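Ticket #4471: structure export looks truncated?
Reporter: QA, pipeline team
Priority: medium

Steps to reproduce: submit the single chain below to the structure queue and open the exported record.
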Amino acid sequence: MGLFHTVCKIQDLPEGEGKTVCVGTKLIALFRRDGEILAIDDVCPHMGASLAGGCLQNDIVTCSWHGWRFRITDGTWADNPRIKIGSYPVRVEGEDIQVEVDAQPGSANRG
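Actual output as written to the record:
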């Protein structure tokens, strides 16, 4: 089981946008969609671009470099569902957004 880490304030994440946050050395992309906050790995596995800066439409973020598309709900690559990046539980405590990341390096990836 992981630990929840406060990563930013809820007002720092506008609706329909992404934001990169750090938990230790891990980069995580937060997205706010329909009031829900979701978290996946920020680094696109293709060439390392930030997914938080990609185009968000519904449940899909498209990498701005080469168009790889990932579901923000679970990190699944939309064009090849056998491939996934890490996704993370999120909770809001007061005005703080918290992300749960496993204590052991690399163990937060689900897939």
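Status: closed, not a bug. The export was complete when the record was re-opened. Leaving a note from the reviewer for reference: Residues 106-111 have pLDDT under 50 and may be disordered.
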